[in-house]
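Consider the subject:
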Amino acid sequence: MNAGGLRAVGLALVLGAVGCGPGHLSVRVNAPPGANQGRPLQMVVRAVDAKQYLTESYADVAKQVVHPDESMVETLVVYPGTRTETRVKVPEDASLAVSFLFTTPDGAWQVLLDAPFPGKVDIELEESRIRTDVARRPTRKGGVAKKAEAPKAEAPKVEAPKVEAPKVEAKVEAKAP
């Protein structure tokens, strides 16, 4: 192999070690031991538009595993008690729906990822749903974007009004015994 070929191979190895490269997304899934009642579950990644994402039912997505259409990007079995990572090709003109086919879904079972896609996305699973309160979306520089916080403001200090008791005049009549 000539020097130019060696440089090209070396560059490819370096780019592969740095990240997925343009056009790809790394999806990392953390499935604790109790996820899906301890049973393996299917992860389905599809190229969709927002309307399709909002109108498709769980049964519609589940059918895609057996009878995939052109929207299918990736399917993967996720095992509880493991951390799984896969690399998917991102569509040029669509969003990505990442769906998890839980045995008995209870809450969020899929998430929609819009362009521009980050280099990596982390998804935490719970027993029968995707954990949505700790969505972590890494930035392009490799750090994790901070979760937005509500602005902090102190309530104005107000002194309680001074209230005087009402004056009551009492008449006392004395009766002779």
Remarks:
- Residues 20-124 form a domain with the Immunoglobulin-like fold (CATH 2.60.40.4150).
